[in-house]
Amino acid sequence: MKFLRLFSRKPTFSDDALDLVLSNEDVSDPEYGIDDGYTFNIFRHKTRDYVGYVSLRLGESPGLYYLGHIGYRIEEKHRGHGYAARACYLMLPLLQRLHLGSVVITNNVENVASRKTCERLGCELERIADVPREYRTLCAGATQKCRYIWRMDGAEKAYNKLS
Predict the structure, then answer these.
(1) How is residue 31 annotated by DSSP?
(2) Which residues of 12-50 are buried (b: 16+ CB within 10 A; e: fewer)?
(3) What tens digit of pLDDT does each residue of 10-43 get?
(4) pLDDT recorded at residue 35
(5) Alpha carbons 51 and 75: distance in angstroms, whole number
């Protein structure tokens, strides 16, 4: 089921800090088990000041085990404001419409900022996994990944701590 079929217009999600605007609704990669997905550009609220992007990858596969369902990148000049966590939270209506009870977010062990983002979201660190050689290219050469589980039932409570 495509996301745009769930909504009557090009979807955007906003709060008082950010706007998410759909930029790509075809984030599939059968080779790695990504069935579908969406990428949103992140802008500062009511501006076209580009902050970064956030993606949702749908599917289950060995590749997604290491890559995760959600990925994000914040431009360097916008880091340190909690924008990645806000962007993830803003996708909550989409996650709920897709009936996802939880999603996985992975990051590199040394990426302290991304790990803090997961903590802000209320994610649980499931484990630090060694990345097999065959998935290292997919994971930009990473040899280990932190696997965080973000459960939707506590997501709104975690978002209130961001505000």
Answers:
(1) G
(2) ebeeebbbbebeebebebeebbbebbbbbbbbeeeeeee
(3) 557 988 999 999 987 767 777 777 888 899 999 9
(4) 83
(5) 6
Q: How far apart are CA 56 and CA 105, in angstroms?
A: 10
State pTM to two decimals.
0.87
Tokens coding 126: 């499931």
The 10s digit of each residue's pLDDT in 126-155 is 999 999 999 999 899 999 999 999 999 877
Contact 12, 22 (CB under 8 A): yes
50 forms bridges with which residues in the sheet? 43
Element (H, E) at 121: helix 112-121
Residues in the chain: 163
Amino acid 6 reads L
The two tokens of residue 88 are 């993830």
Rounded to 5°, angle at Cα 53 from 33 and 16: 130
96 alpha-carbon distance from chain centroid: 14
162 contacts: CB under 8 Å, gap ≥ 6: 82, 85, 86, 89, 120
